[in-house]
Design goal:
45% helix, single chain, TIM Barrel, 8 strands, 16% strand, alpha/beta
Length: 223
Amino acid sequence: MRKREIARYIDHTVLGPATTPEDVERVCNEAKLYGFYAVCIPPTYVKLARELLRDAEVKVCTVVGFPHGQHVPEVKAFEAKTAVDCGADEVDMVINVAALKAGNYAEVLRDIRTVREEIDKAPHRVVLKVILECALLSDEEKVAGAILAKAAGADFVKTSTGFGPGGATVEDVALLRRTVGEGMGVKAAGGIRDYETALRMIEAGATRIGASRGVQIVQGAPD
């Protein structure tokens, strides 16, 4: 897979607690230079990213309920609405992991659906990705979370926040792909630092890669 081709899989990410406006400007400029699909930045910088990318094809993605997912659904929905109003094209929400592990599937479904219904009020289609934080889940819980995300109308399931105990694995990506089928996106995120790893995730079924090392990944690809 060549440089430009793999770049279109990448959400170029900076989400650390010390993220500065200069960091956001850097990832936006890199996204334009390398042709990344999106930047993924903290909610406080959505307006800045929208302005920096106003003449670019790069999407603006942000996070909701981040990083632990234990906000109540209505708060997540308000976060998502605010982000969309500020210019976000895509929202990556963290589910209530504890509710999923407790088998409270109705609450998990409500969690996701509340956000979906709120962003569906926007005048344009907003992509919703659901972060499962797979490193905290059994395989059965991963499957249940993916099924619930699909039932709630999410566009993607996503492996990890990048701030949990583990990142994306090929096995988790393949499991999520088998669970949701071909009509839904799978985003691999967390610990993907080079071209070879990103390519393995794509071969396993990922349709998007979340990475802070997007430049390094693309530079490792053939011309």
